[in-house]
Amino acid sequence: MTTPRRTIGPVSMTGRLVDLEPLTVDHAPGLRTAVADGRQWELWYANVPTPEGMAAEIDRRLDLQEAGMMVPYATRRVFDGALIGMTTFLNVDHTVPRLEIGATWNAASVSGTGTNAESKLLMMTQAFDVWGVAAVEFRTDWMNGPSRAAIERLGAKLDGVLRQQAQRDGYVRDTAVYSVVAAEWAAVRKGLEFRIRRHVG
């Protein structure tokens, strides 16, 4: 059985395109600006906070962190220091160990710039190489085609679809479940590094 090499908890992660900072209430102003870029809370299949709801969403994630259920982050772009989104480790199972990377959103204008790929590279490196997890999971609404495509570009494989798995605002979604296991990590890392190099001068 695989066991964690270190306690799974908040840690800063630094890349060439993005820095992942443990989430705090001080991130609220920058994240309100970021989420207004693209108005993604209007997408019916996505669960993205509004600018007005950002403080409450940060509090919610920090409460879940306090309960040991989530490790949330703010994503900061390196070249100008702007906050561009949020992401998190969640559903941590210490017995396997395994975890999920999710609850992610990014400003619309950073799509295709390599920032999301590097965020996932940083997080999976932390999960596999430092914490020694056996698998990293990704979940999204089956109707969220852009999210499913992004997860598949990471190199994750579809484990299955949980029909009628989660409800929000009267809508019950089918959840697509993907994962990368430890044996696949070396190949997935090479693919992500290749993608990121195209965006680094």
TrEMBL record:
Signal peptide: none
UniProt keywords, alphabetically: Acyltransferase, Transferase
Keyword Transferase attributed: yes
InterPro entries to which the protein is assigned, alphabetical: Acyl_CoA_acyltransferase, GNAT_dom
The keyword Transferase appears for this protein: yes
Enzyme nomenclature, EC number: 2.3.-.-
Domain N-acetyltransferase: from-to ranges: 20-157
Enzyme class: transferase
Pfam families to which the protein is assigned, alphabetical: Acetyltransf_3
GO molecular function: acyltransferase activity
Highest taxon in the source lineage: Bacteria
PANTHER family the UniProt entry points to: BLL6696 PROTEIN, N-ACETYLTRANSFERASE DOMAIN-CONTAINING PROTEIN
Record's protein name: GNAT family N-acetyltransferase
Biological source species: Citricoccus parietis
